[in-house]
């Protein structure tokens, strides 16, 4: 018997009255594990109205009290860490270890939300002119919304609503319809932590629900993570409706390997960062750029990748799980086939991989190509699967030129023992997040997640100080209090009413 996934609207959990029903399936065998009814137009409007009403009172709650809610929330998330990871693993197919990492990276942002008091401080200058002071306040926008993808159903929602609500906003979350159970459990724990009913609302649906959010006049800011075409659509439509938008999109992340790097470390890090999470992460390394004689390491890389075995979420020996759905698998297989047709060398082919007893699952084994060129589809598109392309150049400058020519700018890394090479790379590379001997340089939440180029549309990035700016407005006050207004007198008291 499958589980019914509810909406959360105005503090009430409801099945919804929408006619369109979606099955949530187990990616390991594509069998249904839950169903949801897409929200109707009236239900989305009700969710926004609930957030509007709850936010009126919430914005007046002292920032110290809002911080205490976030403190309780991050503790509840820690208390329920393994439970959340189990739900997440079952609906995404991720291994349990990978699912726990997904949850933990979200907890780190919730922890930062508990520090909201210091992050919302304004600025003050005394005597900007004679007897005049100027100071600024940081105030909430109103109601914000988040549209989140399937690949990180805990981490990415937690990038959004804890910080937005800590700033004093209401929030409407539209999670991926492919794995909605994890976000719903996050919402339940948020209310358990003391968040007012109606402050956080969760609605499920497809493009129709997204379009309502994009056009709703009461929604002031929208956060999105997903593909490039949808990211562009979200950004264009949202800004046309005069909303703030931060839209995180696709990627093609390169790792540059210098001849002085440690070979064993490079190979180990390349394997994990390319096929981990089945390659379904926007910070995955999908291109390895071997500089000089490091191309001689490729056969050993092949041997290491061949040892990785996909499997079920509770298989402790599994390197990663299945892709999210049959459509994703078909697309990855199509790109693999295109690489063969266009002349790349397929050194390791995971196209026919299956797991015994789960042959109908969305499995793709580790896949490795050499001889890849910039003109190939294999290189130009984000694959979002366990596929690694290798390319060869003679110098660091050539590697930098190659990476900078990519239309994407999410993440990159360089492996080297040369400080000078690392300095040149980090300075000249046109990518938002750079790792030096770190394969996936996702910053901790004291900083912001800072993709560039076609990997991000907007001005202010996720979490960190930039997120606070995104979810707030600044009010500047210039004040003069003439000394002639000071009341003087013997035993003077002033009663305030």
Automatic annotation (TrEMBL):
It is an enzyme of class 1 (oxidoreductase). The keyword NAD applies. SUPFAM superfamilies: ALDH-like (SSF53720). InterPro entries: Ald_DH/histidinol_DH, Ald_DH_C, Ald_DH_CS_CYS, Ald_DH_N, Aldehyde_DH_dom, MeMal-semiAld_DH. Keywords: NAD, Oxidoreductase. GO terms for molecular function: methylmalonate-semialdehyde dehydrogenase (acylating, NAD) activity. Its EC number is 1.2.1.27. Residues 17-477 form the Aldehyde dehydrogenase domain. NCBIfam families: MMSDH. Belongs to the aldehyde dehydrogenase family. The keyword NAD applies. GO terms for biological process: L-valine catabolic process; thymine catabolic process. This is methylmalonate-semialdehyde dehydrogenase (CoA acylating).
